[in-house]
Design brief:
heterodimer, A: alpha+beta, 2 helices, B: Aldehyde Oxidoreductase, domain 4, seven-stranded mixed sheet, five-stranded mixed sheet, 21 helices
């Protein structure tokens, strides 16, 4: 099962739970599973059917180029991290 | 004293790692290179921009009548000419704020939010008439109280820049009341309170840094021609032609295919030319006048009307035990976004503790609007400010423990497998190798003698980026290859990309002919920024070269009438695996047009595996106790480049970043008057370091190959500006015994610290 790390600011919505294991094939499904466990949390992570503009999804140490469609494996780690540009 | 630059290589290649002459070198040293200001199209008009004298004011009205009547004036535009003015708020929905902020930063509609904010623009037969016309535009302002300091802007009751448009967004939760705090984010790891409880030593300090400018030598410029058929051609100085195309199309509400952007040579950017200001304005002037229009900024306009790096406030707390391990760390950052939301505070937060393997840490950041120009990227956006605080606190903790600052950092250094505070795990990185190189360097091993002198060290981090890049490569009959790319060459990337192509093809570097082209002539390519170009566009060149190799093998097989899998490509030679048949690359190139046609390899990708970068800087200073002036005596900058494709250009990036960091540390700041006006908007008064202020910057390139790139490349352009601010502050503390917590460390601030016992 893939492991989803709950962002610090959303742990109040999960009763302090920091990690959740979910059955999912992509990031969208992982968020849906998370939302089933903690209703409303998807709305904190997503906006207009996409990841919030100031957030990025990190899957197994790499920023997910395909966003919600990024494939994940049974051993994947999923983090929601600040979106970063550069100079 | 050993001062030679060093390269600590792991792997050697034929072309990658060599130091060939840059393809654009002759044009640049002979003055033939074409920059935006050099462009002169037939019938060209000259544009100028009217800017606000107030830092914060409501625009009651703008009367352009007298300007339009002036002889020689061909067009005048205001915000009313931008599509935003005629769009319905309800139709825009949730997109309203984004579009208003985008549009208003080109030409202000209802409010000016910083001195220098563009209000109107004129196109005329010559620049003098255009400037005279600006003086004839009447703007009626209701002047408002400005707020230019990040902490003041966060207070309840502070003047609001955006009335009711900005509310604090905290990962999906939005504050009920409007605020200058546009967003807040926090992340943590472990149990920070418990970690502090385990500490034997705790240091906590607050820090501030001033707004500073990137200081690129070439001002912003743009020429636009809005043709009668609706096609908009733009020529400009930019780090990303496709970003200019997309955002110009967005602001003008036209299709991206209606906009063609040609990047001219660029006279520096350092992140500041990821943002742009003039292109849609020039296009509007062109549409109204029916002629091409060129708009140039003066240096004062660059300072007052383009984005600086943000001023900041930070609180840093760190605890460690007697064993020399950091037990907990905490940082709170507030960054000035300037007039519109979007500071790099979360970049700063992400970088803040990246150098350290922490079990317990908390990081939080506030993005705050103030009455200054909208901030723009500047090398490793956000990271130098964060390092200024964190690396001083690290130094002070090491002092209190009586541990050498390099050894303390080595004892806590991030390495492969360490989990970052924000969650993901580091892959192979080279911080430990950089620290070991610092410890072993002649500079660090040579005692610093003499009064009022001090040595400082600091580490720095930048995550680097991949993003989209495209390359086309066409084989010429003479055996050379035209390499077409969309990455603006801001620091020698034509060479570094050509080297990777030549290495992959097994041909000479001089046989690759790189060209940077317009947005209609190559696939989508992101900005030259984020330390991504040599990594990502280089990788695109590698893939395009592999495509060429595959087609060359197929062509040879066709000529020899054998299956392609019996043919191999080896170091620029195409040969049959068993029979005595072979072509050199050049021999086969000559036959392409008579054996089926030319060969073009293409690649477009968005690669992962960019590999994070670390640097460690060592600096010796002497502080004059009478004047407070800090002199840099010796400076050594060490950095993991993964693989230095062109070591001279890597050294140049390291030296340039270090010098800009020295300026940030000692001299540079936007100095504001009481009404929020910048008081030093020229290079006479905004003091950047010159060669006379500096010793030679010695470099050490450490090569810990990035497993995520075929040649082990990591981006190098940004991390060298991260350590200097704190390294110099640490050195000043060693020299004076005073901990300087505010930038810049001017002679006055040093004396003030002496007098106040600070």
């Amino acid at each position: 099962m893939a492991k989803v790390f709950v962002p610090t600011m959303l742990q109040s919505a999960t009763g302090g739970v920091k990690e959740v294991e979910v059955e999912a094939r992509n990031v969208r499904q992982a968020i849906e599973r998370l939302d089933e466990l903690f209703p409303g949390i998807a709305g904190r992570l997503m906006e207009d059917d996409d990841i919030r503009p100031n957030l990025a999804v990190d899957v197994d140490g790499e920023v997910a180029r395909m966003g919600l469609m990024q494939r994940i494996s049974e051993t994947s780690e999923i983090h929601f991290v600040p979106a970063i540009g550069g100079g | 004293m050993t001062t030679a630059n060093q390269v600590l290589s792991e792997v050697e290649y034929d072309v990658v790692g060599q130091r060939p002459v840059r393809p654009d070198g002759v044009d640049k040293v002979t003055g033939r290179a074409q920059y935006g200001a050099d462009l002169n199209l037939t019938g060209l008009l000259h544009g100028r921009v009217l800017r606000s004298p107030h830092a914060h004011a409501r625009i009651r009205s703008v009367d352009t009548g007298k300007a339009e009547a002036l002889a020689g004036v061909r067009a005048v535009v205001t915000a009313a000419d931008l599509p935003f003015a005629s769009l319905n708020k309800d139709e825009l929905g949730g997109d309203y704020n984004r579009f208003k902020f985008l549009s208003d930063n080109f030409l202000a509609s209802d409010k000016v939010l910083y001195r220098g904010h563009a209000i109107a623009a004129v196109a005329a037969d010559n620049a003098h008439v255009a400037e005279a016309a600006l003086a004839l535009i009447d703007v009626d302002y209701e002047v408002l109280e400005p707020v230019i300091d990040v902490r003041a802007a966060m207070q309840d009751g502070a003047p609001l820049l955006h009335d009711d448009l900005v509310h604090t967004s905290a990962m999906g939760e939005v504050s009920e009341n409007p605020s200058n705090v546009a967003s807040y984010m926090k992340f943590d790891k472990g149990d920070t309170a418990a970690g502090f409880a385990q500490a034997d030593v705790i240091v906590e300090r607050e820090f501030t840094t001033a707004s500073v400018h990137q200081g690129y030598i070439e001002p912003h410029n743009a020429t636009a021609h809005w043709r009668a058929d609706g096609q908009i051609n733009v020529w400009c100085s930019t780090q990303g032609a496709f970003v200019v195309r997309n955002i110009t199309a967005d602001a003008l509400r036209v299709d991206v295919s209606d906009v063609r952007v040609t990047p001219m040579e660029i006279g520096g950017g350092f992140g500041g030319k990821v943002s742009f200001y003039l292109e849609p304005v020039a296009a509007l002037l062109s549409r109204k006048s029916g002629a091409p229009v060129k708009v140039l900024m003066s240096r004062t306009e660059v300072f007052e009307g383009s984005g600086p790096a943000p001023g900041s406030w930070m609180r840093v707390k760190m605890g460690a035990n007697r064993a020399g391990k950091i037990t907990a760390a905490e940082i709170e950052l507030a960054f000035e976004a300037g007039a519109y939301p979007g500071s790099p505070v979360m970049q700063g937060a992400t970088c803040a503790f990246a150098c350290y393997d922490l079990d317990n840490a908390t990081v939080s950041g506030y993005d705050v609007v103030v009455n200054k120009p909208k901030t723009a990227a500047y090398r490793a956006p956000g990271s130098p400010q964060a390092a200024f605080g964190v690396e001083q606190v690290v130094d002070e903790v090491a002092q209190k423990l009586g541990v050498d600052p390099v050894e303390f950092r080595l004892n806590n250094a991030s390495k492969e497998g360490v989990r970052k505070v924000e969650g993901p795990v580091f892959q192979k990185v080279g911080l430990v190798e950089c620290l070991e190189a610092a410890r072993n360097h002649d500079h660090y091993r040579t005692p610093l003698e003499g009064p009022n002198r001090g040595r400082g060290i600091a580490a720095g981090y930048w995550m680097n980026r991949g993003f989209h890049s495209s390359v086309n490569m066409t084989v010429n009959p003479d055996g050379t290859v035209n390499l077409i790319e969309g990455s603006v060459d801001i620091g020698g990337s034509r060479a570094s990309i050509a080297q990777q192509a030549a290495e992959t093809l097994g041909i000479g570097y001089e046989d690759i002919k790189p060209q940077v082209v317009d947005t209609d002539s190559i696939g989508f390519t992101m900005v030259t920024g984020g330390s991504r170009t040599t990594f990502a566009t280089g990788w695109a060149a590698i893939l395009a070269a592999e495509d060429v190799k595959t087609q060359m093998v197929e062509r040879a097989a066709s000529i020899w009438d054998v299956p392609a899998d019996e043919v191999e490509y080896d170091s620029g030679v195409i040969r049959h695996k068993s029979e005595e048949l072979s072509f050199t690359f050049q021999e086969l190139a000559r036959q392409l047009y008579t054996t089926g046609g030319g060969i073009t390899g293409t690649a477009s990708l968005d690669p992962t595996g960019e590999g994070n970068s670390f640097g460690v800087h060592v600096v010796d200073v002497e502080v004059d106790p009478d004047t407070g002036k800090t002199e840099i005596l010796r400076y050594t900058a060490i950095q993991d480049a993964g693989k230095a494709v062109h070591p001279s250009y890597v050294e140049g990036q390291i030296q340039g970043g270090a010098v800009q960091g020295i300026g940030w540390a000692l001299n540079e700041e936007y100095y504001f008057g009481d009404s929020g006006q910048m008081m030093n908007s020229s290079f006479l008064d905004y003091r950047m370091p010159t060669s006379l202020d500096l010793p030679m910057i010695d470099t050490v390139i450490v090569e810990v190959a990035n497993p995520g790139h075929p040649y082990g490349v990591r981006g190098v352009g940004e991390v060298p500006i991260v350590p200097p601010l704190a390294a110099i502050a640490n050195a000043v503390e060693q020299a004076t015994g005073k901990r300087m917590t505010a930038l810049p460390i001017t002679p006055g601030s040093v004396l003030e610290a002496e007098w106040n016992g600070g």
